[in-house]
Amino acid sequence: MLERFIKKEETAAKHEEAFVGEKENLPAHIAIIMDGNGRWAKQKGLPRIAGHREGMKVINKVVREANHIGIKYLTLYAFSTENWKRPKAEVDFLMRLPEKFLHKELPSLKENNVRVTIMGTLDGLPSYTIDAVKKAVEETKENNGLVLNLALNYGSRHEMIRMVKEACREVQEGKQSIEDIDENYLSQFLLSSKLPDPDLLIRTSGEIRLSNFMLWQVAYSEFWFTNVLWPDFSEEDLVEAIRVYQKRKRRYGGV
Ligand code: FPP
């Protein structure tokens, strides 16, 4: 027990040390596509849901580390609008995860000044999922630490269709002229309108694609891909991604 405590303290100290004097150029917003749960489970001869269960545990580690480093926003792709195509038992299991995670972790999220927000369509989710996330959003709304933005039943194209519809409605009602439609105007209708665009996008498991995730918002994000499967993702991997980001030069189309 004592050994484990000492090891934990050492790890914390190591991370502290790693970032001393190197807090410049930190990404304010990190978005993560947490991929590879199924493959992780398969490699171990376990059912896919075991991978999701393990993946859920990693969230806690990553939130703590991100908060500790001073990241302001962390968006996690937890369930996409396309994930409904999976076998019913897997979908049912995934739908229980926010409830399980928040039941266990909400007290410590509150203690650590984390604010939980949700990005996605709540319609169509089971009531226990909606209740759990609404409770977390409500009970953390006054916090001003890390924003943990859970993308749940989220799909970027769906979000953009909604954005276009909102804009058309305003034009139709005479509140908005077509000529004045610009990026700023449209982005107020994004589900992430209260968050800055991600600076750094991480995807685990070796897949190099966006899978309908924040397509508008990642226009100028830096991407970092790793072969590590999400259940194996560690604090060190997060630190490595941030380190790589810190060395990159962002030009936003300029020189
Ligand atoms: C992708 O791996 C992962 C998901 C579709 C679900 C991710 C969800 C979690 C990590 C837990 C969510 C928990 C909370 C609290 C929001 P995959 O199943 O596609 O893996 P594979 O590509 O190896 O099959």
UniProtKB/TrEMBL annotation:
Source species: Thalassorhabdus alkalitolerans
Function: Catalyzes the condensation of isopentenyl diphosphate (IPP) with allylic pyrophosphates generating different type of terpenoids.
Cofactor note: Binds 2 magnesium ions per subunit.
Binding site for substrate: 36-40, 48, 52, 80-82, 84, 86, 203, 209-211
Active site (record annotation): 35, 83 (proton acceptor)
Required cofactor(s): Mg(2+)
NCBIfam families recorded: PRK14830.1, uppS
InterPro entries: UPP_synth-like, UPP_synth-like_CS, UPP_synth-like_sf
UniProt record similarity statement: Belongs to the UPP synthase family.
Root EC class: transferase
Protein's name according to its UniProt entry: Isoprenyl transferase
Binding site for Mg(2+): 35, 222
